[in-house]
Amino acid sequence: MKERGETELLIIGVTSPIIAAVYTDGRLVETLVEEGKSSEVLPPLLQKIVSNRKLAAIYYANGPGSFMAIKVTYVMARSLSIALDIPLYGTDAFAFNANRPIKAVGKSCFVKENGEISIRAECPDVSSCFVPPKRLDRSIFSRECEPLYILPAV
Questions:
Q1: Per-residue pLDDT band at 152 (split at 50, 70, 90)
Q2: What's the chain's Rg over C-alpha atoms?
Q3: What is the spatial distance between Cα 125 and Cα 101, in angstroms, rounded to a whole number?
Q4: Measured in whole angstroms, how far is the alpha carbon of residue 130 from the centre of its chain?
Q5: What is the per-residue pLDDT across 54-93, written as a single tens digit (0 to 9) for each?
Q6: Which CATH architecture has domain 7-98+128-140?
Q7: How far apart are the first and last CA of the chain?
Q8: Facing residues of 18 across strands?
Q9: How many CA atoms lie within 13 A of 64 on its CB side?
Q10: pLDDT number for residue 4
Q11: Would you give the distance in Å from CA 105 to the centre of its chain?
Q12: C-alpha distances in angstroms, 125 versus 89, 101, 112, 128, 142?
């Protein structure tokens, strides 16, 4: 059980822009949005967040999305969770875009139907708009948080 006044971090880094949302007592208190590559954007963004806060947990969108963005986000979130000795939790990115299709390679997209994530060849209605929730619903996250590397067939 989380203690009162604890600060938690949500990272949505499956594509640009990278979003970091800070929560206190499960309520959104700050959102930081940065355009660019996750490898360039995340280090200073995370430094800014941890320099003046004591984090109790990290949550992140573990995919689907850009393979490299997911990988970099996972490595940085996992490293930070180890360094700070706090838990890391993951959930799919559909939780932050109203379950809309997410861009994959070319004209394809990732979709989530009946709890299953797959790739669709043609997607006219792709969403890259991710929004952190006003309240952090911890029940949608899992400690089994390895990246969702869903790749199209070669």
A1: low
A2: 15
A3: 7
A4: 9
A5: 999 999 999 999 999 999 999 999 999 999 999 999 999 9
A6: 2-Layer Sandwich (3.30)
A7: 45
A8: 34
A9: 23
A10: 58
A11: 19
A12: 29, 7, 14, 10, 28
Q: Where do we find the tokens 């890259």? A: 128
The closest alpha carbon to 20, from 69, 53, 52, 59, belongs to: 59
Place of tokens 């850009």: 66
Both tokens of residue 83? Answer: 């360094």
Q: Which residues have C-beta within 8 Å of that of residue 115, sequence separation ≥ 6?
A: none
The string of DSSP letters for 99-147 reads T--EE-STT-EEEEETTEEEEES--SS-B------SB--GGG-BS----
Overall pTM > 0.85 = yes
Domain assignments of the chain as residue spans, ordered by start? 7-98+128-140
142: its two tokens = 């899992």
Q: What is the chain's length? A: 154
Of 35, 38, 46, 44, nearest to 66 by C-alpha is: 38
DSSP 66: -
- Give Dmax (Cα) for the chain: 49
